[in-house]
Write a structure and sequence with these properties.
Blueprint: H1 2-15, H2 23-39, E1 45-50, E2 53-59, H3 65-81, H4 85-95, H5 99-103, E3 116-121, E4 125-133, H6 137-159
Helix pairs in contact: 1-4, 2-6
């Protein structure tokens, strides 16, 4: 089961790539994630970065500064491993280790839990991260994935 999960997570990363990614893209995507969270009555903090430059940041009512700490730790995982934070967590779980044992990184700075996803530009690679905190780790991950699918489908239709 874990192997299928890892393969599904890698397939998401390959599917959900941008042709280009700029400040306006970050703004539109961040607003879409916020709208989608509101539609499910979720309370999340959202951050989108490109090359360690914060392009979008929003904390919904009833979130706390702790959500921003989780965002930083999840984003650190995406930046270091170039994969979603959920993938990294599931990968080490399959190996029977935690991130600290496997990679000698401090868990105070790295959180391999759902909610961090790589911003990948076709032909370039990972240039940033989209990170959400406030729901369960699976729901955080799924909110980002569903929003990315929605945004990219709309973006591709508008180009036709």
């Amino acid at each position: 089961m874990v192997i299928e999960d890892l393969q599904r997570l890698i397939a998401q990363e390959k599917e959900l790539q941008f042709e280009k990614f700029d400040n306006e893209t970050a703004w539109q995507l961040g607003c879409l994630i916020k709208q989608n969270a509101e539609a499910m009555s979720g309370k999340v903090a959202i951050e989108i970065t490109r090359n360690n430059h914060r392009l979008f940041s929003y904390a919904m009512p009833d979130t706390t500064p702790d959500n921003l700490c989780w965002i930083e730790r999840k984003s650190n995982v995406v930046q270091r491993y170039q994969h979603s934070s959920w993938y990294v967590g599931q990968y080490y779980k399959a190996k029977g280790k935690n991130i600290e044992e496997a990679s000698l990184v401090d868990q105070k700075h790295f959180a391999p839990f759902g909610g961090g996803f790589p911003v990948c530009v076709q032909g370039v690679g990972v240039i940033g991260s989209i990170t959400v905190s406030g729901l369960s780790q699976y729901e955080d991950h799924q909110l980002v994935v569903d929003s990315l699918r929605q945004y990219l489908a709309t973006d591709r239709v508008s180009e036709i």
